[in-house]
Amino acid sequence: MISENKGNKKARYGMSIDVDRCTGCGGCMVACASENNVAPANPGANDRKGLTWIRVFKVDNGQEYPNKRSVFVPMMCQQCGEETPCYLACPQQAVDVDPSTGIVGQMPERCLGCRYCMAACPYHARYFNWWDPVWPAGMEKTMNPDVAPRMRGVVEKCNFCHGRWHAARQKAAASGNRVLDPADYVPACVEACPTGAIRFGDLSDASTEVARNSKTPDSFRMLEKLGTEPKIYYMSKRQWVKEIAEAPKLTPQKEPARG
Amino acid sequence: MDKDFIARGMQRCSTGKFLLWLFPWVALLIFGVYSAALCLIKGLNQTNMDNRFAFGAWIFLDLTVIALGAGAFFTGFLLYILKMKELKAVINSAVVIGFVCYSGAVVVLAVDVGQPLRAWFTFWYPNVHSMLTEVTFCISCYLMVLLIEYIPIVLKNRKLREIPSMLVFEHELHKLIYVLAAVGTFLSFFHQGSLGGLYGVLRGRPFAFREHLGIWPSTFFLFILSAAAVGPSFILLTTWLVEKISRKKLVPPEALRLLGRVSGMLLSVYVLLKCVDTLIWMNRTSMVRGFVPAQYYAFEPFGEWVLFAELVLFGIVPAAILLVPKLREKTGWLVSAAAMACCGVALNRFVQTIQTMALPTLSFDKFLMYTPSWQEIGAFLMVVAYGVLVYSFSFRYFELFPQERQLRIESAAAKPQHETAVGGR
Amino acid sequence: METNRRDLLKLAGGAAVGIVFTPVPWRLITDAALWSENWPGTPQPAHGPLTARYTNCSLCPAGCAVRARCISNRPIGMAGVAGHPLSQGALCALGLAGHQAPYHPDRLKPASASAAPVAQAIAKGGVAVLDLRPGRTASWTYRRAMAAVKGLYVTAPQPLPFAYNLSAARTVLSIGAPLIDGWGTPGNVLRARAGFHLIQADSVESRSASLADTWLRINPGSEPALALGLAQILLQRKPKAVPAGMAEAAAQMTPARTADATALSEKEILDLADALFQNGPSVVVAGEAAPEAAALNALLGGWGQAVVARQEAPVPESWKTAAPATELASVPDGSIHTLLIDESAPGDYIPWGVIAKKLARGSSSVIVFSWSGTGYARHANLALPTAVFPEALDDLPAPADSPAAAFRLSAPLVEPPAGVVNPVEVIAKAAGIDASAALRERADAIHKTARGNLFRYADGVSTPVKDLKPEDFWNALNEGGCWIDTAQAGAPPLPKWVPSASAAGGADLAVTIVERRFAGAPGSPLMSKVYKESNLQLGPNRAALNPATAAGLGLADGARAALTTAAGSCEIEVILDPAVSPGALEVAAGPEVLDICGAFARAKVVRA
In which order are the strands placed within the sheet that holds C74-80? Predict the structure, then answer.
């Protein structure tokens, strides 16, 4: 992967998610699963044993009606740029951080299934294949050939739709370009979002919308103080929403019932 | 009929009685193998672990078992390197316990991973940054060392000694014992530390994350120290237990007291450093990352009592008992303190593994609990049964306690006709 | 020289050491790794040429435009069509994985079931067709067929006589409608959302309530009371148009009584009326069974601007002799001998009890055309499997939030499996009419008016219809296009005042139905991501209760329980949610639940 990009400008892909615009429709979750060949739920699966590379949580301000306010927060791999916890945890290099894109990759074919990376991730963005993936008869015809399906016993997670990145690179290479066209590389959740709440692009390119969004005073990152330099920037105009990025509060918060 | 295999001068129970003793353990082993097979064949959906509770009972028990198994390396270290000759009385038993603990832990780990067939990838594509790589390398190597240390004990068996080449082999191996003890000690120190590092490096889990000294977090050193402290206690405890079950005097009381004294000294150093570490973690490490430590103890059932139990009840108290010579003299105090020390290290491993997983990291996370499934418990019981069986066979056919014969003659001389040969095994 | 055993051993040892320095062992190890990557049973998706194809999603009546990414012409991913005048490039979760709907395990398996009983039943007489998505060309065919055999064409309920123009509204009051959660055309609503102030009166914190500017928590079942109470206040401000009978109905509903019924304060109700009155144009969007709320629109400033007469795409003159549409409610009880239900194009799910009442006692039979085994097929004497999106050709009527008439096709992207039947073909043939080219005839009729524009999905270009040949118009519609009328819709006729069934009282829990989207269409198996593998949405047959209420009933989180109403009982899973009001019950829509919970139902929940 590294050698492929020799001589190219290094990108630092990231996202900005405007939580004030998220309607919690779940379109990103379904589009992601469809794009990345994530199998439908096993009959025994629940919200703790499922596979949702991107998961939308409903988070409230902890107050009672009429002061209660809720937002929807999509959570996926935050693509940590420094001290990447999962990358440092994996004993056999099944996790890599691509220096040319900044994307934290996961190689399920290399994965032993020890789940140490899951213990290491503060965002719970990694998912384990507790069952053999099963597609209902015929549904394999709708699978995306650009993404290899995973097997039981390995960990998987968001990789900013690596299949799409690869296709965009091939397209760029075919037309003799060394830099890929941003319009060709858009992750499935970004494409699916009906309100445009999720934006994607190169954070190192100041002209992109994400780079501008990441610098607004409304933007914040989840658990920024851990020092892992995540590349998903959330945005909200509301102060209480910005505070959900902090560590859990002293008093055990009321458990979010859904999400 | 198996009398020919039992060492001369040792008294062991009848074959029938021995088989009777084995029966429940074999049954347990079969149940355990069935549970483990379910996990291997049907997958880890047989467990109650989940995406948030990615590590469960197995990891906690593995860490505990390995800490307790540290008695093997540490006793070897005390005997061969620090030349504490009294410990010759327990060294063989310690090696068997170490072997049982480590091999058992490796078996459970093999069930715990999703793709056991790829376990060798760690050696092929090692990630030098990963604590788990360190653990895997050290445990594999140390298991090898323990196996080599175990072989001479087996070869000393009466029947095997009749084969001349075995005798030569055993003699040659014996020359190696100091090298093995040194290598084993190094490996063991290292991987106990790596196991501690496993959680201490988790930047994403501020409850477990600790300040680093060099490339290792403080838990690296605390795990070494705590394992070294309770290893001897566990040897003490098991030896006492074997004496009770077999109704025999196996080691001179001085050996046990020495184990207790070493354990007490190390435990007090450990508890002191653990307290310092906890204070640094509470006031600095955790705070810098925005996590107020009081919040960790705001979720039932993990109140502040956990910290109190770990540091005081199962730390300072047993250390104090073990350090007072008068109390050490009394077997009751000695054994209780050793048991408490063992509980302390188990609690520490529990906190490091289970509580870390249960606590929320994001502000909108739930506090989670999990109960192991029967398959998880079964797979662990398999290892317990395996350990008891290996130890039982070793005790019956090999000289685990070299001074047993001597002690029997002495006590027989003191109290003639009293002891009939009805050992538990 | 003699070779002895020692030499052989030496050779073997040397070879063993030597082989390490050859590539052989390393290659073997790498290959072994590759082998473990091919886990048995994991499908290998086939590669092929990548293309884009366009159609309209027909899983729900919104009919959003779809761009399907196809490999070898098989759709492998769905996305919206940017710039579309109605759906605005958006798709909901159901639509985003719509291409997987044919593979849902609940799909009716194509069997050897014959459609012959349909012809026999029609020949016998006393037949009725229940159309769940009226306004389609297929609906016209059913009407023509019923005219031919003197049968009944039934809908339930009739589409509203008016359409909303949300982009002209400045204030929107949603009384229990899932406004931001699947109402109308999601993309259109979301686009207009920036321009209006949203007040959501809802008994639960629905997604629309979460996202509204103001959420008013009202008692479950008090929706009609709130509408009436508002009407009472607004009537005093001398509105230009008042639906007949409304003044009399609202007279008794003083703010104090409204406050009592809804659990809002009098001030909140007066403030709400002020907000609607002063910050117009205002519209009221109602959820189920609140005709009062719909009629409220006439009292507000939006009549004729934000609320306009509903338009239907033109039809050929010859069709106009078709049978009229009869509302299910006005069909006499026990009068239908054979009921044909077209569930291939699902709309609002009507509780089975409501339909069953209309069937003749003893001798009636029900034939259902459906692709889902979970809907009316459960109650049918004969269930005939049909094609599902994206296998079938159908058209989609303009949704409630389209102020102009529209015509678009849901053109198939894949072949339907063998053994499925086409309900329109079967019914038309049995009635002896030829409707095989009905869609083309209608397209030609639209073309003949020379009105409106055609929006082509592939290039995003809008072309006036008058510049197109009929053939090109038809082809464009099939390849992904949407015709939108340019004729200005005027003010709708004043609606008649129709009071809704009054809310049931009693000590039982007041039921609020949420997630209606799941009711009609199971959709892709991947929908499990949003309600099974996460708790984002309430899954089918799950019910949320306030923890205090649940404790009183002895129910724990995750408990299985029986939900019992006056109409029957079904099994549910209990979820505790402090956001649900005490004494209320939030249930996800599903055929079993809807069969027993009509509007404003009250239910008992007992641990199973």
Answer: C50-56, C65-71, C74-80
